[in-house]
Design brief:
Rossmann fold, six-stranded mixed beta sheet, four-stranded antiparallel beta sheet
């Protein structure tokens, strides 16, 4: 798998009202990599995600998957939103199976893959529960299972834990890190949370606002699978503070 975002610009509006939202965005994501885009409001990171998802088209530049231009949504990209986006009238198992049934998979395969991915996210016992019977963290695990069940080549994570409280968010970050370690999934994360980006990603692209552009790229290799311990390590804290200072300077000195 190879995602290539090359010299992408995006504008909205026409004539004098035309507004440049993204300016010359370029990056690559190869199979098994976990990449993050981090920036404040106005940095255009959500627009980048919509372009990669095929929900918008670039004004200039090109985005390709395995050399083929992205021209719309596709099964090769699975998306997980900040809001859980589960169908409230379907059980957890039925939500996971939804995309598989749309693809016309045989019933036996649907059952097998649904059970497998419920097990992967640690919710095998919740298959018959409705979303309202699940906590926020459990609902987001079901959303991730649903995305993975359809076998996307790339998982797109749009502020996936932004609606969760601190304790659940940290638990979900550890879960996602372990999931990436075990499955080798390819993922693109957008977040305003610098710490989250540094904990989860192998490479972090820092975005500046108005217009959105990548101003710095950091390779991350902490060598630890224990995120709670990593948060307190001196090298991690030093990197976080350095990049927080960078982000504050880009955003007019606001606290992160």
């Amino acid at each position: 798998m190879h995602l290539c975002v090359s010299a992408v610009c995006k504008s909205f509006g026409e004539g004098r009202g035309r507004k440049l939202v993204l300016d010359n965005i370029s990056f690559d994501l190869h199979g098994g990599e976990f990449i993050a885009l981090v920036g404040s409001s106005g940095s255009g990171k959500s627009t980048v995600m919509r372009l990669v998802a095929g929900l918008e088209r670039p004004s200039a530049g090109v985005i390709t998957m395995n050399g083929i231009p992205i021209r719309g949504p596709g099964a090769d990209r699975g998306m997980v939103f900040q809001k859980y986006s589960l169908y409230p009238w379907l059980t957890a198992g039925q939500n996971v199976a939804f995309g598989l049934r749309l693809q016309g998979r045989p019933a036996a395969e649907v059952r097998e893959r649904t059970a497998y991915f419920l097990e992967v996210v640690g919710l095998a016992d919740a298959a018959k529960l409705l979303p309202r019977e699940l906590s926020g963290g459990m609902q987001q695990r079901i959303a991730i299972a649903r995305a993975l069940a359809a076998e996307p080549k790339l998982l797109l994570l749009d502020e996936p834990f932004g609606a969760l409280d601190l304790q659940i968010r940290e638990s979900m970050q550890q879960f996602l890190h372990q999931l990436w370690t075990v499955t080798g999934l390819s993922a693109l994360l957008i977040t305003h949370d610098l710490e989250e980006a540094l904990l989860l990603a192998q490479r972090v692209h820092i975005m500046a606002p108005r217009p959105g552009r990548i101003v710095r790229t950091v390779e991350v290799n902490h060598g630890s699978s224990d995120l709670a311990q990593l948060r307190l390590s001196r090298p991690f804290l030093s990197m976080r503070e350095e990049l927080a200072h960078c982000l504050r300077s880009l955003d007019g000195g606001q606290q992160l």
